[in-house]
Each structure stands twice: as C-alpha cells, then as structure tokens.
Amino acid sequence: MPINLREADRDQLFLLPPSVADWLPENHLAFFVLDVVAELDLDAFYAEYREDGRGGAAYDPALVLAVLVYAYCVGERSSRRIERRLVEDVAFRVVGANQLLDHATLARFRRRHAEAIAEMFGQVLGLCVQEGLVDSKVISIDGTKIEANASAWANRTRRQLADEILAEAERQDTEEDELFGESRGDELPPNWARRENRRARVREALRQLDEQGAADFESHLAERAAREQAVGHKLPGRKPIRGGQTGKERFANPTDPDSRMLRARNRFLQGYNAQAAVSTDQVIVAAEVTNAAHDSTMFVPMVRASEENIASAGGDGIGTFVADTGYWSVANVMVATPAEVLITPMPATKGIADPDDPRIQERSKVLARVATGELSVKQAAVEMGVSYNWARQLLDDYRVGRGDPAVLRKQMLDRLSTAEGRQTYAKRKVTTEPVFGNIKANLRCRRFSGRGMQAVLSEWRLICSVHNLLKIRNHRLATS
C-alpha cells in the first residue's frame, strides 16, 4: 500500500490568498496593533509633512508607526532586522501592507517623530483606563538602569580627548608627507588641509566637555535654588571652577554625551536611569528617563507626571505613592500631594537616630531657635555638638519637614509597621519588578537604540506604551 503524503510542489504559482488579511488568524497580535494605531490621534505625526503635497511621496506615518509598534511588541528593535523581517515574516508583511521599508526609512522616522512617539504614551494610557485596567489606589515608583548605545571604554577626559585628536592629526600629517613629499598636497581632505581646522576640531571636543560641566553646574544651581526656596534661606556652597567644572576630573562619551556611568546591582554600565510609575495591575502610568545616578531626584517629577497623566486619561485619583529607600529624603516625604507617601527610610548614619532619645527634644528646641533667628547656625552647631554642615542639613530638613528628621523617620517607620502599611508597601515588589522583568526579558530591552536624552526618552516611552498595549490585548483575550 503506497504511503499517503501531502504533496509539496514548490513550483506552484499560487500559494497565498489574494488578501493579506487572510494570511493570519483573526486574533493575531498584528491585527490588534493595526486596530490600536487606527484609534490613535496621529495629527502630531502628519504635521511634520508638507501640506501642499509637493516633493516625493512619503510613507504613511500610520503604516510606519504600526510596523514599529508591532516590532517592539515582539522584541525587535533593530532597524535592519525589522527590514529583513518585512521580507521574510508574514506578520510583518501584513502590518506593513507589503511595503518593504528599508532600515534608513525606519531610523529616520524614529528620529523625526521622537517627540510625537513619546507623547503617544498618554493616548495608550487612556486606552488602559477605558479598559478598566488602571487601579490607581497604589502607585509604585522605581527605576532600572538600561545601557546606552555607547561603550564605557569610549569615555575620555579633556586631556585624553585632545591628545587623541592631535595624535590623529599628527598621524594624518605623517601619512600625507609620505604620500605627497614636498608637494603642496592640494588633494588633502578639506577638514585636514589646514592647521586651523585641526584646532577647530579640538576646540569643538573641549566645548562639549565644557557644556556638560556647565549643564551639571546649572542643574546643581537649580536644585539649590529650589531647596533654598523651601527652607527660606541661602545655603553655603563653594564657588564654581572655570567652565562649570569642579575639582573632580570629568569624563565625556563622544558616542553618547548624555549617557553616564551608573551602578547597576554589582556592576557599572554606561547608560541611563529609566523611571516608571506602575499601578497595582502593572500598568505604567508615567515614564521618564534621567542620567542621574540617584533615584531620589526623580521622585517629585514622577509624582507630578503620574498625577497629570492619570487626570488627562480620565482615571481616578491616586491613593498612595510607594517607593524604596533610594527615594528617601525629607523633601520627598513632604511633597505637596493629596496622596499618601510611603518611602522606606534610609538608615540614619549621623547624629541621633532614636527619636525617643531625650536629646531629640533639646535638638528640636535649638533648631526652632535658629529658625526664628535667635541663634546662628554656628552657635546651634556648638550647642548640638555637631559640625556646621551637619547643623545646616538638620536645619534644612527641620524647615522642610516642620520637625526633626529623626521624628519624621520614626513616624514613617511606625506607619510602615502597621498591618495596613505593610500590606500597602508590599505591593511595590509585585508591581514594578515584574514590569521591568517583562521589558528586559520578553521585550528584550536591555540597551537603548537611540542616542541622546530626547531619543532615549522617546524610546523608553514607546517601550512602556508597548507594555501597556500588551496588557490591553491580554485583557481582551481573557474576557472574550
């Protein structure tokens, strides 16, 4: 009896159905992405194109955006790999309507519409609210370190950067001398033809370092001004050194100057500190990026962004913000918000840690006298038996928190020790950690593709939007 096998005729002329819509099952992720993009307001994308229609025809932004969103949903972020899958992958061909976009087109689209892609996050959050997925009773704030599209080995000091450029100029001069001898060498590349041009390149590299130092110093001044406004007096500080530099030698990364060396668990990486505010059902309600190593500077911005985003999306008010020890500071605990704030206090390493210590009452009296102008900070430092700088810090925290920092720490610990406080704070681990795990493991986002703060912020919000979109799809599949 002959074997019964299905025939495989590769010379058959007609293999696929006439409509690309028939290539995939109805509940495929590709159709979900197309439906979502069709619901979004894309006016910000279309505003970048000429209204008179002149010039070469451009790809429809809705089509390119759908390709990018679907690619991020399946963990594909490389423009070249997306281009290849638009040829080889049936789902990509369905989303791309059989348009074979090249990698340059995809990369330019991301750069051109970086701001519009970032703003899309708010619309996706609105869809989550409509689906009933955002439980804003408890919002957890946390951060994760993500590598930049740059190598840590590319970091250079001012001297190293200048020496490398001058060494390159010297090497080029030597090669040209061997090639042209004593001739004029009119064939020299324009950027190396004159010594003044080489000097210009050195000055440009040094200018980047100066701008970095100046930006850091301006940020420091802004933070100081905000804190001085909160405490009601000027803070002591050293004078800036020329170029915005301090005595510590600075490094710049020529590949991505906005990235920084950050500590991530047991290692250091060249990257960014990506922040997320997450609801109890693991929906991201706010997403920001910073190159600051410490999370504490981002607590207030994340609180404000969460409140604004949820209000814009039509969600309910926030009940409680929770964060880990990295966000602890008196200013963060006392942030002006109708929601409760729960932050694990940082262990006290200076002064009196026990608020029940009778010296606390005496210290509070001294700080109160300084606040009313009866004592100077120097006199208060002598009476409290601490250094001048520590006395100044205690006074700042006293004015912001309207009490002794040790008392505020004790109040927070007492709140966290209650059954309700423990139950509320315990939700932090099961909200933010799974979100970061999904982003890094399933969506394979361990390294940003773009370079520069604006590009990285746009990509981070796109990734967070994709995370929220997948939450919507899973919800619809579960309830259908």
Explain this structure:
- This protein is α/β, with parallel strands linked by helices and 480 residues long.
- Among the domains are: 20-133 and 467-479, no CATH class; 156-244.
- It has 18 helices and 6 strands.
- It has helices at residues 29-39, 43-46, 61-73, 79-88, 90-95, 103-112, 114-130, 158-180, 195-231, 299-313, 330-333, 358-371, 377-384, 388-401, 405-417, 419-425, 429-442, 453-479, and strands spanning 138-147, 260-264, 267-279, 284-290, 320-323, 340-343.
- Strand 2 and strand 3 (267-279) form a beta hairpin.
Ends distance: 47 Å
The structural class is alpha/beta
Overall mean pLDDT score? 80
Cα-atom radius of gyration: 29 Å
Q: Helical percent range?
A: 40-55%
Q: Could you give a short account of the major beta sheet?
A: 6 strands, mixed
- Listing every helix as H and every strand as E from the N terminus to the C terminus, the arrangement reads HHHHHHHEHHEEEHEHEHHHHHHH
Using the alpha-carbon principal axes, give the shape: globular
Low-confidence stretches: 238-247
- How many helix segments? 18
Beta-strand percentage range:
5-15%
User: How many E-type strands?
Assistant: 6
